[in-house]
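Continuing from yesterday's entry. The apo prediction looked reasonable, so today I'm repeating it with zinc ion included to see how the binding region is handled. Same sequence as before; SMILES copied from the compound registry.
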Amino acid sequence: MIQINQPQLSAGTLPTKIENPSTAPAAQIYSPGTAEFRYWAAAASLERASAFWSPLLPGVKWQVGKVLPVDLYHGEDFNAYYDRVGLRFFQGQAGSRTVYSCESPDIVCHEQGHAILDAIKPQLWDAASIEIGAFHESFGDMSAILCALQVPSMRHDVLAETSYSLYSNSSLSRLAEQLSWAIRQGHPTLVEPDCLRNAVNAFFYRDPNTLPSNAPATSLSSEPHSFSRVFTSAFFDGLARMFQTMPAQDEPNLLQVSTDMGKILIAGIRAAAVVSTFYSQVAVKMIASASSLFPGPYADALKSSFIKHGIISAASSQSIHQQFAMGITAMAAPMNESHDLPKMMIPVQEYGLGSDSIMVHSAVEPKQFNITGAALDVGPLQPVSEELQAKAFLEDLIRRGKLKAANQSEVNYAVKSITGSAPKVHYHHTHELVAEGDTMVLKRMRIDCGLKHM
Ligand SMILES: [Zn+2]
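Holo prediction written out below.
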């Protein structure tokens, strides 16, 4: 338990505002389990995330406007989401206990992470790509880890807990322990045995189009939270390796590494081309950013980690050096300053969606680095066409019940079965087919962090 000064949510360049409940309880010390405690716990997490990211993002504003609205009690569910209106948190019943997602600093900083990433890379929002959806989830978890490291007692505890070897199963690597307990009561296979997701894991990169749409937490699936674990573990391993390069493995240096990593991550994301193999593009731009911003061993530490986790292939290592030598650096301007990705028509007769073809936002920005993830056998993966990527994305949405069609009377069995199981309290679908003139366009409605990922 830590005691803090009263959080100031309106401070800084990325302010937030708790709109529900509409009035703040008096700022004083409250017992855990009370609504007043919950309010200030959520406020402290919101303030911590804004205070961490704001200095790294001068001039950046929320997609929703000047202030990011927050609803602590949006409904009954084990859930939380971000939807370009604000952050929404829920409460769920597990036995006699009510668990509130807003009470978890990991979940608050994860949700705020979605809003941060949307502010700096809005093109990702509508991208018809499984890997890009998963990267959004990974960024949420990376935000939770970096924000947790801003708390002095967390730095102290994690160093003691891991014997200074950061890439170990610890209270830092285990995300949302309390909420995962609640989910485990009814759905024991959907979460890890001790947390919602663990940033220390052995999942190796795969082309997500080849994965099943759903799987227990012990396996990798194309579900965004499940597949996000690959990038998060490479990031966390990279953070640990960066920390090992410091002259001493102590608390001030851990704080320093967390800020340096925040800068590298932001620079890497900003410079990365929005393509379906987004993980490898961000990774290579992070390595390039590390070498530009912090001449020294960080770049090699990150490269080792991204290769170990298969985000970039070992065979790419030489090519990265050659391309750096040719002067292709991370600091080149982002290639697409616009909000929108190019649109592409794809045929969809076979799904009976009420239209023979639909328009999707295609992840096809030109790449600076011709690098993909590692194949499971030898060498790099062979890239798949953008139309196939977009179709795989659509099919995955249908299989997981995350697509809502515009005209429900014309849709086929698959989509009817989805709407038939729609939740009573709020929406769970993430995408809709929206009519624009004569064209149906696939659009994202929200990033649902629904904690039962099935
Ligand atoms: Zn999320």
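Comparison notes:
- Confidence is low (pLDDT under 50) at residues 409-425.
- The pocket of zinc ion is lined by residues 110, 114, 137, 140, 447, 449 (CB under 6 Å).
Will overlay with the apo model tomorrow.
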